[in-house]
UniProtKB/TrEMBL annotation:
GO terms for molecular function: acyl-CoA dehydrogenase activity; flavin adenine dinucleotide binding. Belongs to the acyl-CoA dehydrogenase family. The keyword Flavoprotein applies. The lineage of its organism: Bacteria, Pseudomonadati, Pseudomonadota, Gammaproteobacteria, Lysobacterales. It comes from Pseudolysobacter antarcticus. Its EC number is 1.3.8.11, 3.13.1.4. It catalyses: 3-sulfinopropanoyl-CoA + H2O = propanoyl-CoA + sulfite + H(+). Its cofactor is FAD. InterPro entries: Acyl-CoA_DH_CS, Acyl-CoA_Oxase/DH_mid-dom, Acyl-CoA_Oxase/DH_mid-dom_sf, AcylCo_DH-like_C, AcylCo_DH/oxidase_C, AcylCoA_DH/ox_N, AcylCoA_DH/ox_N_sf, AcylCoA_DH/oxidase_NM_dom_sf. Residues 6-118 form the Acyl-CoA dehydrogenase/oxidase N-terminal domain. This is 3-sulfinopropanoyl-CoA desulfinase. Residues 230-381 form the Acyl-CoA dehydrogenase/oxidase C-terminal domain.
C-alpha cells in the first residue's frame, strides 16, 4: 500500500473540505434541528463530483478511486453526518451496485442523473421484521408470463427514501430457495404502486430523511431486474462490503470533528488556574482519542486500497471492510463520548456541536451491519466456520 496520495485524490479532498466548511458546517445545526433534507447542498455536491466519485466519467461521475472516496467522505462527515450518509448511499450502495451488476442501458438510465446530483438514489434491503437477517424478507416479487414482476411488501429505514427518484430494491422472488431466491430490482418511485410511509424521527443524522416504503402491485419490467434473477442476495452482500467503507469514513469524519474541537477546548479552558489539557487524566483521554482516530483511518484506507485491487484483479475485500467499519464506528462512539465528557456542561448543550457529533456517531455502529454482524463476518471469514 502506497501511503502517498495522488494529485487527483488530494484535489477531491480539497474540494470536499472547502465545500464542507463553507457550505455545510454553517447550516448543519439548523438542518439537524429542522430535519429538512438539504437538497440544494446535495445538488451542489453532485456538480462538484462528490455524489459519484468512483463513477466513470461516461456515466456522469468523477472517475476516481476508492481512496479518493474515503478522503472526500471524511471531509463531508466532519462537517455533518447527515450530508455524509446521503453521499455514502448514493456512492456506495446505489451507484456501486448498478455499475458492478447493471447492463449498459441501466447504467446510462439509472446512474448518470444520480452521480451528477440531479436526482437522489436509495437502497432498500431492510424490512420491519428483518434487519440483520436479510433472508427473512417478506417483500415478494411474483414473476409474470412476460418476464416482468409484480411486487408487494414493505421496506423500512430507507435513507433518502422520501426524496429518491430511483431505488435499488431487494425482494423475494422464490421463497423456497432462501437466499438464492432474492432478486434485485431498479425501482422508479414515480410509477404506480410505490408509496412512501412515515418518516422516522431519528436520534441523529436527522436531515438525511429516512422512511418506510411500500409496494402495492408495483409492476417491474424484465429490464428493471438488476443482475440475474436470484442473484439479489449476492448483489446486496457485495454492495454492503463497499458501503461499510463509506460508513467507516463517515465515522472517522465525525470523530475527527469531535477530536479537533476537544483539542482546542482543552488548551483554552482553565481549571485551578491552568488549561485542563495539562491534567494527566485529560492528556490520557487525548492520547487514546488520537490513537483510535489514527487506527480507524489506516484500517479504512487499507479497506479502500483492497477494494481498488479487487476491482482490478478480482477477489473479495469483505474482511478489510468489516474491520474498518467495526473499529471506526466504535472509535467514533468512544471519541465523541469522551469529547462530551471533557467539555462538561457545554458538551451537553446544543450551543456547541459536540452533542450532535455524539448523536450522529451512534448510528455508525448500527447501519450497514451492526458491530455484532461485523464481528461475525470477520470471525467467519477468518475461521471458515459458519
Amino acid at each position: 500500500m502506497d501511503f502517498r496520495y495522488t494529485e487527483d485524490q488530494l484535489s477531491i479532498q480539497s474540494v470536499a473540505r472547502d465545500f464542507a466548511q463553507k457550505r455545510i458546517a454553517p447550516v448543519a445545526a439548523d438542518f439537524d434541528a429542522s430535519g429538512e433534507f438539504p437538497l440544494e447542498n446535495i445538488r451542489e455536491m453532485g456538480q462538484l463530483g462528490l455524489m459519484g466519485i468512483e463513477v466513470p466519467t461516461e456515466y456522469g461521475g468523477a472517475g476516481m478511486d476508492p481512496i479518493a472516496y474515503v478522503l472526500a467522505m471524511i471531509e463531508i462527515a466532519a462537517a455533518d453526518g447527515a450530508h455524509s450518509v446521503i453521499m455514502s448511499v448514493n456512492n456506495s450502495l446505489y451507484c456501486n451496485g448498478i455499475l458492478k451488476f447493471g447492463s449498459e442501458a441501466q447504467k446510462q438510465k439509472y446512474v448518470r442523473a444520480i452521480a451528477e446530483g440531479k436526482d437522489i438514489g436509495a437502497f432498500a434491503l431492510t424490512e420491519p421484521q428483518s434487519g440483520s437477517d436479510a433472508t427473512a424478507m417478506r417483500c415478494r416479487a411474483v414473476k409474470q408470463a412476460d418476464g416482468s414482476f409484480i411486487i408487494n411488501g414493505k421496506k423500512s429505514w430507507i435513507t433518502s427514501g422520501p426524496v429518491a427518484k430511483y431505488i435499488v430494491l431487494f425482494a423475494m422472488s422464490d421463497p423456497a430457495k432462501g437466499a438464492k431466491g432474492v432478486t434485485a430490482f431498479l425501482v422508479d418511485t414515480a410509477k404506480a404502486g410505490f408509496h412512501c410511509g412515515k418518516t422516522e424521527p431519528k436520534l441523529g443524522i436527522r436531515a438525511s430523511a429516512t422512511c418506510e416504503i411500500e409496494f402495492t402491485d408495483y409492476h417491474a419490467s424484465a429490464d428493471e431486474v438488476l443482475g440475474a434473477e436470484g442473484e439479489g442476495f449476492k448483489i446486496a452482500m457485495g454492495v454492503l462490503d463497499a458501503g461499510r467503507i463509506g460508513i467507516a469514513s463517515q465515522a472517522i469524519g465525525i470523530a475527527r470533528a469531535a477530536y479537533e474541537a476537544t483539542l482546542d477546548y482543552v488548551k483554552e479552558r482553565k481549571a485551578f488556574g491552568v488549561p485542563i489539557g495539562s491534567f494527566q487524566m485529560t492528556q490520557s483521554k487525548i492520547a487514546d482519542m488520537k490513537c483510535k482516530l489514527e487506527a480507524s483511518t489506516l484500517l479504512t484506507l487499507r479497506a479502500a486500497f483492497a477494494k481498488g485491487e479487487t476491482e482490478k484483479n478480482g477477489g473479495r475485500f469483505g474482511t478489510e471492510a468489516a474491520c474498518a467499519k467495526l473499529v471506526s464506528s466504535e472509535a467514533a462512539m468512544w471519541i465523541t463520548h469522551q469529547a462530551v465528557q471533557i467539555h462538561g456542561g457545554m458538551g451537553y448543550s446544543k450551543e456547541m456541536p459536540l452533542e450532535r457529533y455524539f448523536r450522529d456517531a451512534k448510528i455508525t455502529e448500527i447501519y450497514e451491519g451492526t458491530s455484532e454482524i461485523q464481528r461475525l463476518v470477520i470471525a467467519r471469514n477468518e475461521t471458515g466456520l459458519r
